[in-house]
Design brief:
The complex is a heterodimer of chains A (153) and B (365). Chain A is α+β, with helices and mostly antiparallel strands and 153 residues long. Chain A has two domains: 40 residues; 98 residues, Rieske [2Fe-2S] iron-sulphur domain (Rieske Iron-sulfur Protein), CATH 2.102.10.10. Chain A contains two helices and ten strands, in the order H-H-E-E-E-E-E-E-E-E-E-E. In chain A, strands 1-10-9-4-3-2 form a six-stranded antiparallel beta sheet, with no helix packed on it. The radius of gyration of chain A is 30 Å and the shape is elongated. In chain B, helix 3 runs antiparallel to helix 5. Chain B is built from 15 helices and four strands. Chain B has one domain: Cytochrome Bc1 Complex, Chain C (Up-down Bundle). Chain B is mainly α and 365 residues long. In chain B, the strands form two sheets. Chain B has a two-stranded antiparallel sheet with strand order 1-2. Classes of the chains: A alpha+beta (153), B mainly alpha (365). At the A-B interface, strand 2 of A face helix 7, helix 8 and helix 11 of B.
Chain lengths: 153, 365
């Protein structure tokens, strides 16, 4: 001990070396434990919602006028609306504010989010309340008795 | 330790030699509680602890029937509420006790803030209390999802979207919380693990530290009571204060039993990821002020998305509250300071007002 202290501090002594070695080993051990745990906590990448076109399970004749309903667009919810003008329109049903699922308000002819009172018009544009962006609009095609919804662009 | 007085029996001495009962007895005798016009507020810390113990016991009981998966969670609670004897009672007590615990904790927090109990040397007591508050809110948030009903589903969608609005790390945080990109069964199992294992483990440690620090420093007297020349009055903790504490616990238990019996916890409709958010959806009351703020904020404020600004403001206020002992330099240097009281009262008024609006404003307007 006394001999160690007598040496200049920058010299590599057995104690310094062992301390460095021990510290590095402890650090490496911590990393080898924490790295797998942190990777484990990140969920694996799920199947991408790659659906670009979806044929709906409902038939055009089953849709009530001036109404809206949530339909599956891949793994995501979409809203299909029969507007007062008799036109079929579809949008992403995920509110652009904080991700609630929107609904059609026949009394206002607007799309509305119950969570934070966000309003969108029938072009998907955010017209009142907190939503910062419009809803993504999908193209709706009716072929004989099938409704086909597809992404634009 | 070497107490050979006749008041203790043989068993007491046997145990004393092995676990040191004498030390504990000495500590209990030594501990005193200041008596002054604000002594009443001391009871809320203990009451929070009591309600936490109820949470632990009823939580363990619920574990025996609950199944943490999207396909079974709702049904297992339906079974618990309708078939299991007193299942409704256990769940209702768990739900109500959670609410009362948060309420008692808020009173404890604001009374400590207004009486400046965070003054040196109690900064770490305050800080550990702040951590316990965050952990309690995390308990409430994760527990709310477990019944897997409509309200829970959307509350979690919104709640996990909130860290998602933070720039850069937001979407990663959201994925980490949800166990995927959406709120699904993966979120449910994740929240379940956090609710019944992770949070209890962390709370045990932090609560241990908090209680240890309270024992070490004793209860804080408000600055006005510590002025020189004022006679200090105290009462022994054991049994005087402890018995009063028990009366408080009994009152809490009475309120809890009445609430659970007359207003049993509801279950609502099962969560459906392909149904719109129900009209009148709302979070637990202690998140109502934040919820209502987000509802009232316009979409853009000075070119920044309203919800981002709101979430950042919540964060700043939360950090300020937790760091009060270090921000309040005037009190730290022994000068009178009105700022913490003004901050606390503003915060209380804001929370009360926004919570009131949240419950009274028409949900469809």
């Amino acid at each position: 001990m006394a001999k160690d202290q007598a040496l200049p501090p920058n010299d590599i002594t057995r104690r310094n070396f062992l301390n460095w070695f021990l510290g590095t080993t402890a650090g490496a051990f911590a990393v080898s434990v924490l790295y797998p745990i942190s990777r484990y906590l990140i969920p694996p990448q799920g199947e991408e919602s790659s659906a670009r076109t979806v044929t709906l399970a409902i038939k055009p004749q089953d849709i009530k006028p001036n109404s809206g309903q949530i339909v599956r667009f891949g793994s995501q919810p979409a809203i299909l609306i029969d507007t007062p003008a008799g036109e079929l329109k579809a949008f992403s049903a995920t509110c652009t504010h904080l991700g609630c699922i929107v609904q059609y308000r026949p009394d206002l002819s607007e799309i509305w989010c119950a969570c934070h009172n966000g309003h969108f018009n029938l072009n998907g544009k955010n017209v009142a309340g907190p939503p910062p962006k419009p809803l993504e609009e999908y193209t709706v095609n009716v072929r004989s008795d099938q409704i086909i919804v597809s992404k634009r662009g | 330790m070497e107490d050979q007085s006749p008041k203790h029996g043989k068993l007491w001495h046997w145990l004393d030699e092995r676990i040191g009962l004498g030390d504990i007895e000495y500590l209990a005798k030594k501990k005193e509680v200041p008596v002054h016009s604000h002594t009443f507020w001391y009871y809320f810390g203990g009451m929070t602890l009591f309600l936490f113990m109820i949470q632990v016991s009823t939580g363990i009981l619920l574990l025996l029937y609950y199944r943490p998966s999207a396909g079974e969670a709702y049904e297992s609670i339906q079974f618990l509420m309708t078939e299991v004897q007193f299942g409704w009672l256990v769940r209702s007590i768990h739900a109500w006790s959670a609410n009362l615990m948060v309420f008692a904790m808020f009173i404890h927090l604001f009374s400590a803030l207004l009486e400046k109990a965070y003054r040196a040397p109690r900064e770490l007591t305050w800080l550990s209390g702040g951590v316990l508050l965050c952990l309690t809110l995390a308990f409430g948030f994760t527990g709310y999802l477990l019944p897997w009903n409509e309200l829970a589903f959307f509350a979690t969608r919104v709640g996990t979207e909130i860290p998602g609005v933070v720039p850069i790390i937001g979407s990663f945080m959201r994925r980490l919380l949800r166990g995927g990109d959406d709120v699904t069964g993966a979120t449910l199992t994740r929240f379940y693990g956090i609710h019944v294992a992770v949070l209890p483990a962390i709370v045990t440690i932090v609560l241990g530290l908090h209680l240890f620090l309270v024992q070490k420093h004793g209860m804080s007297s408000p600055p006005g009571e510590e002025q020189e020349g004022k006679a200090k009055r105290v009462m022994p903790f054991f049994p005087n204060f402890f018995l009063r504490d028990l009366v408080g616990w009994l009152c809490a238990l009475g309120v809890l039993a009445a609430l659970a019996a007359y207003f049993p916890a509801e279950l609502g409709k099962k969560a459906d990821p392909f149904q719109p958010a129900p009209i009148g959806i709302k979070p637990e009351w202690y998140f109502m002020a934040m919820f209502q703020t987000l509802k009232l904020l316009p979409s853009y404020i000075l070119g920044i998305e309203g919800e981002l600004l709101g979430v950042l403001a919540f964060g700043v206020v939360g950090v300020m509250l937790i760091l009060v002992p270090f921000l309040d330099r005037r009190t730290a240097s022994g000068q009178p300071s009105l700022l913490p009281a003004a901050f606390g009262i503003t915060l209380i008024l804001y929370m009360v007002l926004l919570t009131y609006l949240g419950y009274t404003m028409s949900p469809t307007k």
